[in-house]
Design goal:
The protein is mainly alpha-helical. The protein folds into 2 domains: about 110 residues, Rna Polymerase Sigma Factor, Chain: A (Orthogonal Bundle), CATH 1.10.1740.10; about 70 residues, Orthogonal Bundle (Arc Repressor Mutant, subunit A). The protein has 9 helices and no strands. Helix 2 crosses helix 3, helix 2 packs across helix 4 and helix 8 packs across helix 9. The longest helix is centred in the middle third of the chain and has 26 residues. The chain is elongated, with a radius of gyration of 18 Å.
């Protein structure tokens, strides 16, 4: 069933339709959130928060809209808010006694998440590290493209930015990722 058909069924009172919609989007949405946060617990919390907000928006959802855009707009906003709040908390709790700051003890990349260390080896790890190093605006574009499979126009819609802003962000992100790989001895 399509997203629109499942939403119609849910509106008609069929709870199974929502469960099926969530299951249909579980992998791409959770993958996006996990790569965005780098923490399983945070990704799980944001996954649930996203669906709570989306459920609140479904009664106003119109079939001409793209459900994927709604879903990833909500997820992106929650992930960005979460990252901002986390950064504020980390800076607040930095230690003054010369010990390593809390944010330096937290995993800097997905390398610490075993489910992402698949047989694809070091190249996959380098890609995740490179994405983690990108500025937030570029990282969101890359993750929406890679994890959600969104078109650049869909990404522009999600970000509320013109496509003329999204494309240069992706271009700069790709250049940064190539430099990251090159600096580590991986050339295309």
């Amino acid at each position: 069933m399509t997203d629109a058909e499942l939403i119609r069924a849910w509106r008609a009172g069929h709870g199974w339709a929502l469960a099926r919609l969530i299951e249909q989007w579980r992998r791409p949405l959770y993958g996006y959130l996990l790569k965005h946060t780098g923490q399983q617990a945070d990704a799980e919390d944001l996954f649930q928060d996203t669906w709570v907000k989306v459920m609140g928006a479904l009664p106003r959802y119109e079939e001409r809209d793209h459900f994927k855009s709604l879903l990833f707009t909500v997820a992106s906003r929650l992930a960005i808010d979460h990252a901002r709040a986390r950064n504020r908390r980390l800076h607040f709790y930095e230690e003054d006694d010369g010990e390593q700051a809390l944010d330096e003890r937290l995993p800097a990349s997905l390398e610490s998440c075993p489910e992402w260390r698949l047989a694809e080896g070091r190249r996959e790890d380098l890609l995740h590290e490179a994405i983690d190093q990108l500025p937030e605006t570029q990282r969101v574009v890359v993750l929406l493209r890679l994890e959600a499979g969104m078109s650049f126009q869909e990404i522009a819609d999600v970000q509320g930015a013109p496509i003329g802003t999204v494309l240069p962000r992706m271009h700069r992100a790709v250049k940064s990722i190539r430099r990251y790989f090159s600096a580590r001895g991986h050339h295309e």
